[in-house]
């Protein structure tokens, strides 16, 4: 739901989880890290970004389809509504991927 809030022009202040005055990607990061112990890519929220997460997002079938209703759990980690290469770059740039 926080991704939907980011996409709205006047998101409610209740969605400003880091209290910086704006609802943006930093609020997503705050939610994931502080409440779930997770980060971009960790779609099953087990605290580990690994092949299980990649299998899940590619199985959702949204990668590079142009669909604009993609959920965070389906690979939209930058909250723009799409699962694209940008999302993969975001997740891998955090250096959190763990090989099995």
Write down how many β-strands occur, each being a DSSP E stretch of 2 or more residues: 0
Measured distance between first and last alpha carbons: 30 Å
Strand content: under 5%
The whole-number mean of residue pLDDT values reads 91
Q: Unreliable runs, pLDDT <50, ≥5 residues?
A: none
- The chain-level structural class is mainly alpha
Radius of gyration: 13 Å
Please describe the biggest sheet, giving its number of strands, its sense, and whether it closes into a barrel.
none
Please tell me what the overall shape is.
globular
Helix content: 25-40%
Number of domains: 1
Give the helix tally: 4
Sketch the topology as an H/E string, one letter per element: HHHH
């Amino acid at each position: 739901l926080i991704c939907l809030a980011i996409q709205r022009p006047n998101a409610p202040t209740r969605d400003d989880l880091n209290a910086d005055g704006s609802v943006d990607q930093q609020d997503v990061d705050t939610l994931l890290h502080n409440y779930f112990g997770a980060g971009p890519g960790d779609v099953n929220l087990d605290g580990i970004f690994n092949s299980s997460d990649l299998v899940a997002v590619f199985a959702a079938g949204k990668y590079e389809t142009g669909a604009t209703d993609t959920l965070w759990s389906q690979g939209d980690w930058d909250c723009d509504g799409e699962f694209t290469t940008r999302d993969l770059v975001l997740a891998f740039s955090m250096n959190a991927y763990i090989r099995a």
